[in-house]
Amino acid sequence: MQIINIDSIDDERVAAYGNLTELQLRNRLEPAKGLFIAESPKVIDRALAAGREPISLLVEQQWLEGMTDMFARIDHQWGSGIPVYVASSEQLRRLTGYRLHRGALAAMRRWPLPSIETVCRGARRIAVMENIVDHTNVGALMRSAAALDVDAVLVTPSCGDPLYRRAARVSMGTVFQVPWTRICEQTLDCDGSDITENSIDTWQSDNQGGVRNPQNRNDNEASTEKLTANKTIDGTVSDSPNQATCGSDDDRHTKRQDKRCWPDAGMAELKRLGFTTVAMALSDDSITLDELVHRLNNEPSASDHIDKLALIFGTEGDGLTRRTIADTDLTVKIPMSNGVDSLNVAASSALTFYATRVRN
């Protein structure tokens, strides 16, 4: 590793850690050139264990000595030319805008996402996140999926990015362990489809592995990528079109989701692969989670037995769209008491994953 002390947070070599928006880091036009930021030694370690390529690291001075083993592994796998930029605690706070990075961050290369068929090969339990826009919930669902033996996760075109720094941090790095992909990745891009190569400054590695950003925009945890949707009571069904607002604070744009992609094409693909599709929602014909578990554990010869299960969770507030619910095989609800009719998607998904896990 090349240890390089940073004198100023304006050093263009560390622009990716603070000045580039999540949108710019993704570079969806050329995924091989896109970046994501992994925060905290644990998240970085899990990304490395999954074979993700580091471009550079940014480490707080007091954490440097404790990361020597990680540096040795990086040298062994990726060579000794990867820079480690060293800064003070105050410099990191000013650059990133917060202190939740546990003293270490890494800029890492994105990878082309696989097909649905590849991700679901051999899977018996998968989850689908439909337009979940809170990255804390995205990360929490990924963590529960890893802990409770969900085989794969699919995200719809307008869903938040699992590699967004907050999502990856909340997932504790399990986003690098659970197979996942974005439905219709080649067809629709909510987070950057209107952006051309000339409209953003894509990162350029210099001879020290740095990142150039002539716009020098201040973009911290509180003001990077925002995705918003109309809000109602969590868990109810939305009458609104399947739409989300995407972009940074000063470059927001709205793009209607291509319904030919989801639910139409995506749902058809899941059924082609043999999955029983289940909408987690309140409706007049919803069966209980207990009934779903009964069907999963029934004898394979039973007429209502379910083997391969796709659980679909909706966005905060609106829940699943009516179109999605209409296209699924079953609608399932979690029985509740004391006048409570819904749970946060992070809680409901964890409960559902545990209840529906494969029991050998």
Report the CATH topology name of the largest domain.
Alpha/beta knot
Cross-sheet strand order for the largest sheet:
8-7-6-14-12-15-13
- Estimated structural class: alpha/beta
**Fourth-level CATH superfamily of the largest domain:** SPOUT methyltransferase, trefoil knot domain
Question: What is Rg?
Answer: 21 Å
Number of E strands: 15
Textual characterization of the structure:
With 360 residues, the protein is an alpha/beta fold. The chain folds into two domains: 2-109, 2-Layer Sandwich (60s Ribosomal Protein L30, Chain: A); 116-184 and 229-355, 3-Layer(aba) Sandwich (Alpha/beta knot). 27% of the residues lie in helices and 19% in strands. It contains eleven helices and 15 strands. The protein has helices at residues 22-26, 41-49, 68-78, 89-96, 116-120, 135-147, 165-170, 260-272, 289-297, 322-327, 345-355, and strands at residues 2-5, 35-39, 54-60, 83-87, 104-109, 125-129, 152-155, 180-182, 226-228, 243-248, 251-256, 276-280, 287-288, 309-313, 330-333. It has a seven-stranded parallel β-sheet. A hairpin with a 2-residue loop joins strand 10 (243-248) and strand 11. Helix 6 packs parallel to helix 11 (345-355). The chain is elongated and about 65 Å long. The chain starts with a strand and ends in a 5-residue tail after the last helix.
